[in-house]
Amino acid sequence: MTPSSPLSQAVQAAKPREPKCNTRAVVVTIVSLLFLIWALSEAFAAAPWRASVAVSRWQPHRNKTQQATISSVQIKKSQQQHVQQQQRLQELKQQHEQHLQVLQHLQQQQEQIKNGVQKLRDLEHQLQQQQHLEQRVQDLKQQHEQHLQVLQQLQQQQEQVHDGVQRLADTGQHMPQAQQAMAATNPAAGTRAVLPTQSVFPVACTSLEMSKRSCVFQDVCLQSAADKKGLSAVLHGRVQPAHADMLKQHLVKIFEGIVNAANITVSIAPAGSSSVPASALQPPTIIWRPAGANQYSFGHALINEAFSAFLVLQNHYQQIPENLQLLAVGGWHPVLRNVLAGTITGHAAEFDAAVAASPAATCFSQLLVGDGGYIAASRGSLAGTGTSFGREPSFFSSANWRKFRQHALQMHGIQQEQPPKPLIVLNDKRFGAINQTDRRMLLDIEPLVSNLIALYPQAEVRAVRFRDLNMTEQIHQVAHANVFITTQGSSSFLLVFLPEGATCVYVGSPRSADATKWVPFYELDRWFPLTYVQFQRYEVALSSTAEYDANPMPGHWAPGDPAEAREWWLYNAHVRLQLDRLKVILDPALQVLSASMDALDGSVASRQQRSVPAPWHIHHVFNGTREGRQLDDCPSEWPAELQLWDPSKSWSVNTSSLGPATGATGDKGSAGLMAGSTINTNNTGVAAGRSVILHGNKNAPQKGRHGKTLPLTLEALQYLWKHQHPANCSNQKFVVYAAVLSGIGSVLHVLSTALRAGLDSGRVMVESPGHFLASTSYCKGNTTLGGCYFMPLTNCTLSAQELAGAPLLGQEQYHRLLARDPKLPRIVRIDGRAPWLLTGEPLAFASQLSTTSIPPAPSYHNYYEGASYSLQRFWWWRAIASAYIVRPNERTYAELATRMRTKVVGGELKDGCIGLYVRHGDKHMENEVFSNEQYERAVEKLRSIDASLTRQLFLSTEDGATVAYYRNISRGWPTTYVDMPMKNDPNKPNIEYMAQHGYHEEMLNGLLNLQMILECSGFVGSIYSNWARLIEEMRSTVRCKADAVYVDVKFQEPVGFNYVFRRR
């Protein structure tokens, strides 16, 4: 490229030109710059606001940034708070829902509770209706059975009219041969006829809890086939086909597995046949089918066979015949034969020997067959654990065991006399010539006997090997023992034959901690609820290995399980008694025994004189004063028309309908009728005009007769009887009293106020029908006290229409009644307000009472009647009224006689005994109650007042703990009492117990207690109790013991007695 070219030229033009140095220009430029700097500095110095303005222009932007940052944080916080609030709200909602659910559940539960309460009420109502219906059905059944019995009796009587002559003639032909044959085979049997309790013959059936049905057939002949594979029976007399079918059913059951049912026939002898069996005079016979399991053990034989047979016989016979024959079907072991022949009858044979081996028929005058005869074979052992009885049946009762004992002793002629000194018997279980051993033995028995002889020289000590003795000898040994020491086991069951008041030291077995099946005292607790024996338990601790030996015994059964086997051998352990421990038990028993023997037998002379210091020999109604007429002499004879309580008739009643009584008889008591007098009864279920013969006996049970009554007793009773028995009832006015639900003592006392209303109003008092105590099947439609239990209170009767139309008087009308307002209707009614409105004695006796020492001064104000009365005179009137009301009728006498033989436990009451009535139960709900110790101190006080009184008690109570307290031998009170249902729950009303036990049972057991306690010379009770006051009222009137001492457990002196018991 050339310099001259255009391109070169352009490049050259583009190159920068180098400046030319111009000094002037540079100076000018520098000076300008300096001036500019100065000007600017001046300008800024003169205007500083401009800088702030510049800065302020940027500040809003900065604040906004900060505010935006802060808002962002706040928003985040708000969002977090919102989330938290949402969560909390959700939790509250959940809690609310839960609360709603709980509330709903509670409401449902509340509704369920309401429904449950209503259902319970409905069920209670249904149960009451069912009980009412069941009672009604039972009553109807009983009425039906009674009607059938009456109808059958009428039919038989009609039939006997037709064939009576022929039967007498035939009997006359056979009697000599029968008597001779019988005397030859059984001289002790005699010719005494023993009739069953039911007079329905030729067939009498009955039942009891342990068996469905058993029957007594009269004039029956049995004959076995030659090959023993068939059995035929013939019924004689005018029997029905149903009787033959009944006998066949029993025979089929008895011979089940032995004779084919098809080969058993029962026929009826041809009508008009003159061949009455010559066996008509043979002893009664029972055919029995023993169970194989009961053949080898005394205990099983006793409980399952002997006791069962006794109960069946007892259900048929008033008195079990001593000449009874017992025939066993299927054979038996000697153990069973020994027990049955030793307790039930002396005649025990196998059926084969009696019937099957005989080519001719064997006939029986009375043949008893039925469930009782084969219960053990068909239902299992009563004493076993695998039976149908989930609990022990009620026939294992003290009363039944006591009767069983009495029968066995009577049958073998064993007297129950007191030995000359206390007898201690030890049960030595060794037996045989080689001293064979058994389970549950007393170890080292010889040194033990020696130590006891040295310790108690005043007693006789025996170790008895019962298995080496026959049954009669065994019973004899135990029946005279005052102390019986035994381990558990079969032979210990002999304790049922111990005398009343004896002590049984029952030795238990060591118990392991896990024992469930075999426990100490198992047998005692299960089968022997005896109250006539004092049981002292000797316990053995498992850790005291020196006291027992629990090694297995070869040849004896034991469970396969090792744990159970250990329990079993502990249960069957041999025991080595410790003398120091045994002494603690025997000392009080022997001390009390010696004291009671001295008191009952060795102090007769000391009781001949009675020295009772003042003021106690003056009756408490006199308030300690001695002015005026005091006690009256007991009448030598009470007027027959009064028909007062005759104590001897409660011991022995002999009428054509009741049969011979078997208890002790008595002569006319202090309140009795003359022997041979006639009693006319009405509305009692007994025909009027029947003669009641009272048998005289020097041993009559009239203990401690004192011979004094309250003043005016005889006159007042005659006046009352005359008022209640007008010659003409058609022109009389009446006051009808309707009873209210209450205790028996209260019922009788309220009734006395109704009698007072009748006297003061001039009206005859009549009981309203439907009394709750008489509305039972026992009373048979006689629903008043005077119709069921007592003599009628009046000879006047009112129709149902008259009773229904009688108006009930209100409180404001009582003064009109007592004022004898003529405007009142002829018949009026009063109710349970009577005791509050009619307090005091009747006006008719006011003038006569003024001649006595009973204080007339007012001591109680009746606000209802607006008047004041003497409490002592009020009590006097109640005593008179009670003596009039409580007049047992003939049927009640018979019932008391029966119950006295079967329910009274303890020794016979002797002269000088003390009656003790203890009221516990629900009494605390209305008044003060007192402990057993307080009553005991009152008894001791009574004995300090009257030294002629003994330590023997008759205890009347419904508290089982009180019975146990006084029956405890360590307390030293030989005690007799009535074995009856107790009322042990103090919070359960007495009325509920009465309904539970049965009103007629309550009434009859109460009257039995009253009868027994009136026998005693002294009396202790609490006057707060209506029943205690009733006892003292009867003692002071018809029992002529107004001069006998009464000590109250509350009041220290007679002057303080509160006769109406209500607190003021």
TrEMBL record:
GO BP annotations listed: protein N-linked glycosylation
Coiled-coil region(s) at which residues? 75-161
Q: Provide the Glycosyltransferase 61 catalytic domain boundaries.
A: 397-504
| Classification via InterPro entries | Glyco_transf_61_cat (IPR049625)
Q: Which GO terms describe its molecular function?
A: alpha-(1->6)-fucosyltransferase activity
Pfam families the record matches: Glyco_transf_61 (PF04577)
Question: Which key words are in the record?
Answer: Coiled coil
Name of this protein: Glycosyltransferase 61 catalytic domain-containing protein
Q: What is the lineage of its organism?
A: Eukaryota, Viridiplantae, Chlorophyta, core chlorophytes, Chlorophyceae
